[in-house]
Amino acid sequence: MRFTLQHTDGAARAGLLQTDRGSVETPVFMPVGTQGSVKAIEPRELREVGAQIILGNTYHLYLRPGVELIEKTGGLHGFVGWNGPMLTDSGGYQVFSLSDLRGIDPDGVHFKSHHDGSVHRFTPESVVDIQRSLGSDIMMVLDECPPYPCDEEYAERSNQLTLKWAARCLDRFSATTAKYGAGQSLFAIVQGSVYGRIRETSARALVSLDFDGYAIGGLSVGEPVSDMYAMTELCAALLPAQKPRYLMGVGTPQNLLESIGRGIDMFDCVLPTRNGRNAMVFTRRGRLNLRNAKFTDDLAPVDPECGCYACRNFSRAYLRHLFKAREILGLQLATIHNLSFYLWLMNAARDAILGDRFGAWKESALRDLASEDQAEAH
Amino acid sequence: MRFTLQHTDGAARAGLLQTDRGSVETPVFMPVGTQGSVKAIEPRELREVGAQIILGNTYHLYLRPGVELIEKTGGLHGFVGWNGPMLTDSGGYQVFSLSDLRGIDPDGVHFKSHHDGSVHRFTPESVVDIQRSLGSDIMMVLDECPPYPCDEEYAERSNQLTLKWAARCLDRFSATTAKYGAGQSLFAIVQGSVYGRIRETSARALVSLDFDGYAIGGLSVGEPVSDMYAMTELCAALLPAQKPRYLMGVGTPQNLLESIGRGIDMFDCVLPTRNGRNAMVFTRRGRLNLRNAKFTDDLAPVDPECGCYACRNFSRAYLRHLFKAREILGLQLATIHNLSFYLWLMNAARDAILGDRFGAWKESALRDLASEDQAEAH
Q: Among residues A143, A212, A268, A303, which one is catalytic?
């Protein structure tokens, strides 16, 4: 993997991430394909809406369908029918949030599957091995993601463990090779909750280990948005300019723009897909809840400025009807639109950065994004 | 609408149905878009899988979203984003099967909505008016579809009512015009349960009224398949050669081939879409239940001879994983495949008819269709 920082505009960055499976222009949003499918959208439609790279969840895929089957198909790309770049997380986040966690020890974690209660163990080495078998283009280290709130002492101890695990992941990564021809890279994860001092320790230690890229984890877990932005800004400033920066699990369109303005290159979040399946669509003028009665006979497209398949062919009234009638097509169209919007937003941000007008563009976009939300409140 | 009988091979027919919204080659299978959407598939994908004409349900659309909204959008085609030919049923079948039926009288039916219990009334005239508002290319008369079993006396009385209603529908049809420019036609429905004498009365009476086409209703409602075929054959033989013949609500691939062999041109059924959403896929070699453990690591496509998007890009193992993981993409891919299969089957039947080899082709296709089903039983 090669990352080229193409342009900066203040702290905002435009870059190019080149993998053996294709290039990714940043800033980039990565649709989340939790269990080997971005929910309610086909791989060819992911291309159509502008997705350059998608995410898979190691925890889910390890439990079902299992690594053995995915190896048989030549890796996750072949199994799920996506031949572009793919990032997998380490599974750590889901172990701590989804499973019945049985215990953390210095060597790894034991957990019970949320499907059938079977007991499993992840270690820094095993999650690298699993991701080697998945064949993702970007792999993530095993980390502990502390909950919010968490006291400083816990955050400190947790971060020490995360740093040790990161070093062990890197060792395993260096001692192994890709299984399917295409190169793989490994990103570290900066933790430290909302404590600047710990975030700084974490970032400096990980940078000294020289990973291919750096993620900022443990944010958007319930902390005030001001803390999220402060930690993002602090971490980004400590990370090397020539490596990609990935803010994990964030967020709203506003969150993305503010974080790009603080130097972030990569994002993932279930918001556009999950909210879409709940009839909430994102537009340039803010969010719309299509279940709202005011859309009953609204023949406008979801977002008149959007060129996606849903907006070119269907009305808000029709989408509302589909949701009221529980038709699967409603989920499909809202997903196509919401991802189109998120990916358009990233492209527009990139264009603004390349044109040295990110600050003004961001303010204007944020005003637009607030207009419908305000109208709803009146 | 113009129907041209292009070729016959025994009783089997190849025809061309021309509407203002496009032509339909017969024999044809019409995917069912109950509530204004063929479930789990996009209109552009309907085109891709080869759909020429789709079906909408008057009962459902009348109740939700209602005729007023559909009129505002210039009819059902604009509302649902399908610009090809469309057929709507009269709503009668759903009134008798879904609603809390409040009573039939000579003038029409009262029923309670299955959504909210509100009371509504359909008359022969009102269902024509509703379908004028929907703007379907082919409209159906209001009929009573007797349940199975039903005694001969009930079937006789019911059929007399259906015949009176058909005449009234035709009167209303003749006294009104299409609302959106494109012409509309009206099909009658032959009823009579499993009683040949009543079927004959019904067919002769309706033929004398000179409808644009003729449906055979009240079959595939629980009667033995031999009765279904016998009634189909009897009715088809009584219907005019130069008008299209539509066997309502039928059926399996085998049912379709047997009925084409008895002179049927048009079919609709929820089987390919509903069964697909339940992980049951149709192939040239029979049905597969993708939940079956034997497909866990089966890397073959659903049907190796199929060229649909699902079969070109994904394995049985992946589809099985999607169903096990309750991923919506599983419903989408199974629907795309099953409709592709049904529409391929109709095209293959048409080719065989045009080539005067329908009988031999049908026997061969039926043998193939039985092979996997037999394998399952061993």
A: A268
